[in-house]
Design goal:
Length: 232
């Protein structure tokens, strides 16, 4: 926090702007797990009252990005390698396999063309070594698939963990020797989806979400606790 300052905010949609500003600082690694957030300091930096700051903190706590204890300062949430492997990845895999089995048969050529734009976006971003854009397109690809399931409960569960997934993506992305691998895996996934091959798509999704991620994390020389350090 000593080297990072928030931007001054304008009154329009103040609560949402403040929330977006803090969330973005966490997801891009400007604020790292364990960093403390002080309402008074943020209020002065942004030029706003403490009310919108307090509301933003509550929202980000619900998203799992911040953690507050009674009578203690708010900190950016930390998560261990074990949490990612044993909790976050299995939940995500269950959601996406359900989405494939329930929604793939209804997806149209127009849907696949839309998803292909995300894949091409990943390819372009990888060529430019732009991790933030890779993450955005990656999240959009998987979110589109989940939305296609039309299962409101599954969509709600995804919404409750998507920012934790996004943060994980920022942590893991630099662990790839070649970030083109991210684009290539999604291109193969999309081909199986276009063929409406549910079983092959599920197998590829398991390899993409579970096998690949767990292997990378287990081989990492340190625990993934800081966004922007050494996503997907």
């Amino acid at each position: 926090m000593e080297t990072f300052s928030f931007k001054e905010q304008k009154p329009t949609s103040l609560r949402h702007r403040v929330t977006d500003e803090i969330r973005n600082a966490i997801l891009t690694g400007q604020l790292k797990p364990g960093d403390r957030l002080r309402e008074i300091a943020i209020s002065k930096e942004m030029g706003v009252s403490r009310g919108p700051i307090r509301e933003a903190i509550r929202t980000l706590e619900q998203e799992g990005l911040l953690h507050s204890s009674p009578y203690k300062e708010t900190v950016v949430a930390e998560f261990s390698k074990e949490e990612v492997i044993e909790v976050l990845i299995p939940i995500r895999l269950t959601i996406e396999l359900f989405a494939i089995r329930s929604g793939l048969s209804r997806m149209s050529d127009e849907d696949f063309m839309h998803m292909n734009r995300f894949v091409e976006g990943m390819k372009e971003a990888a060529a430019q070594k732009d991790l933030a854009r890779i993450v955005d397109y990656d999240i959009s690809f998987h979110e589109y698939l989940i939305q296609a399931s039309r299962a409101s409960n599954i969509i709600n569960i995804w919404s409750s963990i998507v920012n934790r997934i996004r943060l994980h993506f920022f942590v893991q992305g630099p662990m790839y020797h070649d970030q083109n691998q991210i684009y290539e895996e999604h291109a193969v996934l999309l081909q199986a989806m276009q063929a409406k091959d549910v079983e092959q798509t599920c197998q590829l999704m398991k390899a993409h979400i579970y096998d690949e991620n767990v292997t990378i994390l287990q081989n990492a020389g340190h625990e993934p606790t800081a966004a922007g350090s050494d996503t997907v």
